[in-house]
Amino acid sequence: MNIFVPMLAAGTLLLSVTSCKPMMNASAEAGSYPYRTIPGDSLHTRIYTLKNGLTVYMSPYRDEPRIYTSIAVRAGSKNDPAETTGLAHYLEHMLFKGTDSIGSLDYEKEHLELEKISELYEEYRAAEDPEKRAAIYRDIDSISNVAASFAVPNEYDKLLNSIGAQGTNAYTWVEQTVYLNDIPADKLEQWLTIEAERFRNPVMRLFHTELETVYEEKNMTMDSDSRKIWENLFAGLFKKHTYGTQTTIGKAEHLKNPSIRNVMNYYRTWYVPNNMALCIAGDFDPDETIRLIERKFSVLEPKALPAFVPPLEEPITKPEVIRVKGPEAEEVVIGFRFQGVNTRDADLLTLLDKVLYNQTAGLIDLNLNQKQKVLDAGSMLVLMKDYSAHILSAKPREGQSLEEVSRLLLEQVELMKNGEYPDWLLEAAVNDLKIEQLKLYESNRGRVEAYVDSFIWGMDWQQYSTQIDRLRTISKEELTAFARKHYKANYVEVQKEHGTPESETKIQKPPITPLKVNRDTLSSFAGELLAMPSKGTEPVYLDYRKDIGFREVQSGVKLHYVKNRENDLYSLYYVFDTGKNHSRKIELALDYLSYLGTKELPPEEFSRELYRLGTSFSAFTSENFVYLKLSGLRENFPRALRLLETLLQDARPDRDALEKLKAGIRKERADDKLSKRKILFEAMSSYGKYGPKSPFTNVLPDHELEALTPEELLGEVQNIMHYTHRVLYYGPDAADAIIQELQTVRRYPAAPEAPPAADPFPELEQTENTIFVVDYDMTQAEVIMLTRDAIYNPSEVPLISLFNEYYGGGMSSVVFQELREAKALAYSVFSVYRSPKQKEKHNYIFSYIGTQSDKLPEALGGISELMQELPMSPELFASARNGILQKISSERLTRTEVLFNYEDAVRLGHEGDIRRQIFEGARKMGLEDVQRFHESHFRNRKHVMLVLGKKEELDMDTLRKYGAVRELTLENIFGY
User: Fold this and answer.
1) Structural contact between residues 355 and 368, judged by C-beta atoms closer than 8 angstroms
2) CB-count burial class (<10 Å; 0-12, 13-18, 19+) for 752
3) Kind plus residue range of the DSSP H or E element containing 727
4) At 449, phi and psi to the nearest 5?
5) What is the pLDDT of residue 661?
6) Residue 678 burial (CB < 10 Å; 0-12/13-18/19+)?
7) CA 409 to chain centre
8) What Cα–Cα distance (Å) separates residue 403 from each residue in 369, 388, 396, 501?
9) 780-800 as b/e, with b when 16 or more CB fall inside 10 Å?
10) Stretch 508-531: mean pLDDT, rounded?
11) Looking at the predicted structure, is the pLDDT value of residue 258 above 90?
């Protein structure tokens, strides 16, 4: 359950298909339903409107026996009442709590208690005296426990898990709330039954514990510098519209004074079928499915909707610079305001954004990133119904002012206004968008996301699906004129400085009595739902020798081949069994390569040629592997491959580029030490596993970095090309053609070298409980508990999978129910038995909880109790086991998934597709097996606890109860 906030990075939110006039279709069969289509639509979209106004989007796509679903409500935080902001988001949370049927054991009795709670919240809102408020809250807490005795918490999640759903979640943003599921195709009727009931009559049960979860989410956002940037930028761009005057999570004072009545009024106002869309893509029969949907969802009654009249924003006539402070790295973000998504602005912005930034050959790419004038420069669009925003962002290099960063970003806009970009870039940008679209529509999720956008924006599917054609009509003259007209001194700039932010009052924890969790019960609805018959789907496993073509390019160089029979896109990978553990220079060398050209093509021209060919090249380096990836359009593959090979073999050294790269690395290292996520999940986690010398700290010290020469780095690239390696190919060309191309473009060594095999970083044995604490200015405390266990054994994978599903892997798991649902101790919490990525490595128990500092004692106590005693629930176990069986039965690995599944199998020592063992094992195992696993692997184990938080607010006495406390500095964990 998330608040959707676009990342400050590249991307456009509007894509397309093909053009043609829409058609109405209606079968002559009695009882059929008319629907709209677009001739030539590659998604074969059907759009229905039911009698009650519910819109249904369908895309039959039988790639695997699953269906991706979204139920979209055209209402978000912009519709929140000004006096109770955050309401749309809170209602989203409550839609997971069930109805008078889902999750209720005796609704008549439960309803009486819930009504008392609702009345008490109204009194609580009206009361001003702190003692009176505290007394009312005690009554709320007491009655909530009575009401909870009649409820089955998380029954919605258990039901979805039982039928094999994946990705069960939801998100809220400014003008939408969207509910997500990925289900087995044979469970469509069960899913429709659940969802129709879910939206019919949601019940506000377990309200005060869920409210505390939202408090946690609010406190979590207070620690987010990106949230500070976003809220201030939108407040500057939209001084009248609720896009800027309100936030999705809401004001703290509103969250402290909730109203169940207001939440239900919001539901009754906006959650009506004529304001909702059901969007599905996958393996289903459209005619049969629409009959099911109509039968299930006809219980929802339409209602007239209030009109939302967007306020008219005043023109921005001069730059507004807003300065905010936070603990993370400095950054500049500049926003321009435009008309909404249903105007011509959206098309022009989409193309303009790609010309500015496409991660290869845009103005920002070549003039700022490749020339290393700033760090991480980018551009993105935020397209919304009433207004849109175009956002530029970048981080400063060492010693660079934020004003200089701003000037450099705005200079790229000036180049757009002057038409200083090549004519061919427009066509290449449109082709790039087309490729993005093809990739997006390879997945059911991508298709459904397009439907959701179309519906939320109120954009006809024909209009949505013809954007590529419209973009092709835009001339350079029109685009340049648009830039001149709209990009003036009319922007809002947020300068995010490093420093102590203005203090925000965190929401303190209220006294909550842990709720009794009725795990071993089912509502009547759940029992009937689970008894519903379904066709059943047999699992299909990979047979590597049949599903992958294994060929030899040259001695020591293998080709693993899977044919793409769907479109003209290809992906090619060079995979080397060496990485950062074996060379501290290899990642830097491949990064350096991205700033170079060849004898024939200088760096800028090389990047432009790649983009002109519709090709992307990237390199990824892990501890023990290197991946070089080339992808794009089939027709340009031979030329793209030659470009890549020429770069790998004949890159021209550039000393100035290397010196800038070194300076950038020094700045990025300093910025990493300001990043909360980098500190906890990478630096501290690595320290907990390995100690001070780890793969994470295995970087060049400053004096070695300074001494590096271009020749050394290019030598690293040439060295790995002499190692034995694999070529992975997924695409439309035949294997023989790929081998011929590879043999043509490179002279392979007669006897390729075997890459170094030694792993120089042994994992530490844990002999005593240890707590490592790092001081960081933040509202919450975040904790990771690590316990090293036995060496990986493939035979244990089935039980590990079942245990994780039951214990701590999802919203219906024991850990989630105990620590979030019953005790409201965290917004995010999980605990899993984590397997390594390679054989001969150790398994780990990995537990995480993010909580308010004043809840730390209860949170640690809760995790520790679960490590010692496993709550036993036959009902929850049945849900976990059914979930695994249903997911594997309906899962089909395709495309590059086949190739990388085989890579994983080899690295972990699997003899075949491990899913076969998981499925067969899960069918035979019982709850007692899970219990024995917990007893042998979790109880009385030594652990390393990693705590990140504001030291003065951490309860150090509590921490000492769990082991010896040692404070670490950033230098300790980063190694520099």
Assistant:
1) no
2) middle
3) strand 725-731
4) -60, -35
5) 98
6) middle
7) 28
8) 17, 25, 9, 20
9) bbbbbbbbbbeebeeebbbbb
10) 82
11) no
pLDDT category of residue 811 using cuts at 50, 70 and 90: confident
pLDDT surpassing 90 at residue 694: yes
Counting every residue written for the chain, the total comes to 976
Whether pLDDT at 10 is above 60: no
Work out the number of other CB atoms within 10 angstroms of the CB of residue 257: 17
By C-alpha distance, which of 880, 784, 786, 863 is closest to 823? Answer: 863
Nearest to 69 by CA among 156, 176, 185: 185
Question: Is the distance from CB of 431 to CB of 472 less than 8 angstroms?
Answer: no
Instruction: Return the beta strands (E) in 296-446 as ranges.
Output: 320-326, 331-339, 375-383, 387-395
Question: 24 with 34: CB under 8 angstroms?
Answer: yes
Indicate if the pLDDT at residue 19 is higher than 80.
no
User: How would residue 563 be classed by pLDDT, with cut points 50, 70 and 90?
Assistant: very high
Would you list the DSSP string of 426-441?
Answer: HHHHHHHHHHHHHHHT
* Phi-psi map region of 675: left, alpha, beta (phi>0 left; psi -120 to 50 alpha): beta
**What rounded mean pLDDT belongs to the chain?**
93
- Taking the CA of residue 551 as centre, how many other CA atoms within 13 Å lie in the half-sphere pointing to its CB? 18
Q: 806: Cβ–Cβ under 8 A, 6 or more apart, which residues?
A: 813, 814, 876, 877, 880, 927, 930
The token pair that represents 880 in the structure block: 């976990």
780-800 tens-digit pLDDT: 899 999 999 999 999 999 999
With a pLDDT cut of 70, the percent of the chain lying above it is 95
Beta-carbon contacts of 124 under 8 Å, excluding residues fewer than 6 positions away, are 133, 136, 137, 140, 257
